[in-house]
Amino acid sequence: MTSARERVRDLLTVPVRDESHGYLDVLNAPAPAESLSLRVMQNPIFAEVYERAWRPVFTRLFSFGGSATADADRALTNRLSRAGDRLILDVACGPGNYTRRFGASLRGDGVAVGLDFSTPMLGRAVLDNTGPRVVYVRGDAHAIPFADNTFDTVACLAALYLVSDPLQVIDELARVVAPGGEVAVFTTVRTGWNAAAGLPIVRRLSGFRFFGRHEITGRFAEAGLVGIEQTITGQGQFVTARKPSK
Question: Could you tell me the residue range of the domain that residue 163 belongs to?
Fold first, then answer.
């Protein structure tokens, strides 16, 4: 029987440079981070506390201290984690908490792949969130190392606001999802409460981005996705869509 790692290795469109750390690394040595937020993401200490402390607090702040964002997050991840023989890609997976959940109920040849650029985050993922159907890849979300139409489900949750070119990443999510497959994003949305955070100088210094209300949905549509649905909870938005079946 082909292992999950062997299956993912066969799906990659670029060679694996290293797999001695428990994940498939297709990149060169990490380059200096472009912004404060990305430097933080590459810090081993931050990787230790990300899911246990920082992320739960941050998610609650998305809904101004209430539970709306956490409830919507739970509903979406429960749906994406449904059982089946599926290929799932978790882009900018961090320490892999979502990835592990996505892989837990898969059957047959199903595999959940977590993709991230941060070696500390992937190190935590390998230690804390492994599973027989979970495989981690160190790669670039701006140039996802898989062929067109590969995955049944593609997600990028609580990360898009940190990447350097998020709209290019959305194009990549749409490229690698299979016809009839689903794409899901959880990210920020600009409101009256955070208008100052949308200023170019704030974005340039922090690397943190708040998206316009129609910026993500519009890019989904430009990428050819259909059935686009947007749910806004406080300062966050959940956007789902699918690629038309052939």
Answer: 4-242
